[in-house]
Amino acid sequence: MRTEIIPNDYSELNLICWFRRRDQPISEEEAWAIYERNWRYVYQEYLSEEEKVLIERLKKKFGSVQKS
């Protein structure tokens, strides 16, 4: 089963997806790659509980965020 994510549904993901349409679904793997590449721009204090849960789920599935 392939799960897709709409960046507009997550405030910080929405902000770091400035280079693409944020109303279009992306794969979980692609969302994770975007978080990984742009983690330094994520304001962790603004993450909603729902987005924190998403990040933890993706982290368990694909790897870990390199925090700077």
Distance between the termini: 33 Å
Please report the number of helical segments: 3
Strand order of the largest sheet: 1-2
Q: How does the helix and strand content classify structurally?
A: mainly alpha
- What's the number of structural domains? 1
Helix content bin: 40-55%
Strand content: 5-15%
Question: Based on DSSP secondary structure assignment, what is the total number of beta strands?
Answer: 2
Q: How is the biggest beta sheet arranged?
A: 2 strands, antiparallel
Principal-axes shape call:
globular
Order of helices and strands: EHEHH
Roughly what is the average pLDDT, rounded to an integer?
A: 92
Low-pLDDT regions: none
Radius of gyration: 11 Å
Describe this structure in words.
The chain is mostly helical and 68 residues long. It has one domain. Helices cover 46% and strands 6% of the residues. The chain has 3 helices and 2 strands; from the N terminus they run E-H-E-H-H. It has a two-stranded antiparallel sheet with strand order 1-2. Helix 2 packs across helix 3. The longest helix is centred in the C-terminal third of the chain and has 14 residues. It is globular, with a radius of gyration of 11 Å. The N and C termini lie far apart (33 Å). The mean pLDDT is 92.
